[in-house]
Write a structure and sequence with these properties.
single chain; 330 residues; alpha/beta; Quinone Oxidoreductase, Chain A, domain 1; Rossmann fold; six-stranded parallel sheet; NADP-dependent oxidoreductase; GroES-like_sf
Length: 330
């Protein structure tokens, strides 16, 4: 089969290659991929920046969400049949290819009202948003959350999910993204190019950080005492290492690299945590219900043919995308 691969870490162009068909385990399904999407995670993996969290053999096929049709099922698979239209977030990547083998627990039936391209835009950003807002922050109707980078892939989904949960949502974006985030339901829109969110907001229950760095550090100023900040790009801390049972060495490494954030956490009496999203087919089923009811819709910036995967990666890296970038594979 054909796939877009990387052969080593670094900012090297993707390479189109013929590789063997993936093996199908007892609990796996083999799917013909119709569409995949580009995510910042693809860039991080390509550059080797998440090796402490993800181990990949080379050559490696990028792609961390997809949609397609089941063409084979493992002998112990109980949830899916040949011909099912599915979508999912494969734990080991592999979606920039014609076929993928994926565990049945990592996928769900594709929402009936979405095309394959639209469905492929959902899993990674949908699961990230759900796990941050619903599971980690455990927010309830009426509470206030700042979602950074509201016009990005995660932001466009997170705003809609937050509004479906009854939350008050502030978000940051540029002037070009303001109309988009307003249409998604954002209650307060901050132009990050001309305004400082940390001087405009106060007493927020939580922050959903997708930027890291100085932006993450400023977030501590706007959260109420005993509020929470969850980052999907900031440094993992010792708490994350302990939760993931990462071992003594890694946990202490996380403690070291997060020491500045830990000081801010104690100074402001705010809980900080790092979240590395995990595949979850059951949660995708919940998201499908919201999507089929019309409460959440996909936001797609641009669609690329499979052979232009490298061009799609470059566009993603530019930071100009408003919503998701799709690779149409079949």
């Amino acid at each position: 089969m054909q796939a877009m691969i990387i052969e080593k870490y670094g900012k090297h162009p993707l390479k189109l290659a013929d590789i063997p068909m993936p093996a199908v385990g007892d609990h796996d399904v083999l799917a013909e991929i119709h569409a995949a999407s580009i995510n910042p995670l693809d860039l991080l993996v390509r550059d080797g920046k998440v090796r402490v969290l993800m181990k990949n053999d080379m050559p490696h096929v990028l792609g961390y969400d997809f949609s397609g049709i089941v063409i084979q099922v493992g002998r112990k698979v109980t949830k899916f049949n040949i011909g099912d239209e599915i979508y999912g977030r494969p734990s080991k990547g592999g979606a920039f290819a014609e076929y993928i083998s994926v565990h049945e627990n990592d996928i769900a039936q594709k929402p009936k009202n979405l095309s394959f391209a639209e469905a492929a835009s959902i899993p990674l950003v949908g699961l990230t948003s759900y796990q941050v807002l619903h599971e980690r922050l455990k927010l309830s109707a009426g509470q206030k959350v700042l979602i950074q980078a509201g016009s990005g892939g995660v932001g466009t989904f997170a705003i809609q999910l937050a509004k479906a949960m009854g939350l008050y949502v502030a978000t940051t974006t540029s002037e070009a993204g303001a109309k988009l985030v307003e249409s998604l339901g954002a209650d307060q829109i901050i132009n990050y190019k001309t305004e400082q969110f940390d001087t405009l907001l106060q007493d927020y229950d939580s922050v959903f950080d997708t930027k890291g760095g100085e932006t993450l550090e400023k977030a501590f100023k706007i959260v109420r005492k005993q509020g929470q900040i969850v980052s999907v790009v900031g440094p993992p801390n010792a708490r994350f290492g302990e939760e993931e049972r990462a071992g003594f060495v890694k946990t202490n490494l996380f403690r070291l690299i997060a020491r500045k954030i830990t000081k801010l956490e104690k100074k402001h009496n705010v809980k900080y945590s790092f979240l590395f999203m995990k595949p979850n087919g059951r949660q995708l089923e919940i998201l499908s219900q919201w999507i089929e009811s019309g409460k959440i819709k996909p936001v797609i910036d641009r669609t690329f043919p499979f052979e232009e995967a490298q061009k799609a990666m470059e566009y993603s890296e530019s930071g100009r995308a408003k919503g998701k970038l799709i690779l149409k594979i079949k």
